[in-house]
Specification:
- The structure is a single chain.
- This protein is of the alpha/beta class.
- It has one domain: TIM Barrel (Alpha-Beta Barrel), CATH 3.20.20.
- The protein is built from 12 helices and 10 strands.
- Strands 1, 2, 3, 4, 5, 6, 7, 8, 9 and 10 form a 10-stranded mixed beta sheet that branches.
- Strand 4, helix 2 and strand 5 form a beta-alpha-beta unit.
- The structure holds ligand PBG.
- The site of ligand PBG has 11 residues, from helix 7.
Amino acid sequence: MDLTRRPRRLRRDGLRELVGETHLHESDLVAPVFVDATTDEQVPIESMPGHERVPVSEAVARVEEIQETGVESIILFGIPGSKDARGTRAWAEDGVVQRALRRISDETDVFTITDVCLCEYTDHGHCGVLDDGARERWERVETDGGVAASEQESDLTVDNDETLDLLGKISKSHAAAGADMIAPSSATDGMVGAIREALDGAGYTDIPIMSYAAKYESAFYGPFRDAADGAPAFGDRRHYQMDPANSDEALREVDLDVEQGADVLMVKPALPYLDVVGRVDEHTDRPVAAYNVSGEYAMLHAAAENGWLDIEEVAHESLLSIKRAGADLIVTYFAESVAETL
Ligand code: PBG
């Protein structure tokens, strides 16, 4: 047995840090913020301990709280005062995200990213405009209180091309309100190109796009859909979000988004998809983001509340692993708590 080579030699205190391959910094982290037009006080999000929806009047205070931990960027989500078939509040000049953004960019120097999607703004909760078949089924849900499960599974849901125009409008309105980067998450084919064109046409040529390029139809979004009130009222998202079975497909999505002008490519969720994070990182020379989603946060907290896991340790290990897999930046509900320990 040859024991001249002993990997353990490098695992001593003082040396371990010097030879460490992955380092986590506050500057890698993006904190999600929920602004809510339906309330004038903070509303705790039960399934995400430590997170709340805040009214526009408290958006700046919420951001300052985040910045105190050393985290310097946020991604903003909005809960509108009213919803309709086309999600018109998503691009309203006095929309909840637009109002919050104006205050945040006037009063703080945080880097602001905005999520561009329609699911929080449409009454049916889908990420785009419904096509004719789906609209007809949705109307029956409204009048008769339901449609048969077999009908819900029909392939027709969102009208892809009609949605593109609306995503462009939302993006322009966010840029006008002070967004520093636009992050489309609607899983619409052609969304990056349509948004790039809309932004450039309005003079926002310097605003980058972080595309949710490999966005899976995942059950790990459950707590977010409660938080942002964006669950589909019927059917599901498998006709536009990616099949969890696939990773070659993620590379095709990435190539399309790069062709259309994406500046940063995101994989979502993160922990169950670290292989995809790794493949995307090898595949592209663009920065890679990973979204450590609501369910990943909620399950660790639930276990910690039972005394089964140490939340500080598992949170740190989770984010470190996401970076090790190849992510350059991480959107995470752990941003503040982990930053405080770094
Ligand atoms: C909007 C959007 C969702 C998430 C981020 N943007 C919900 C969804 O796609 O259903 C989920 C984030 C999370 O779970 O933390 N489309």
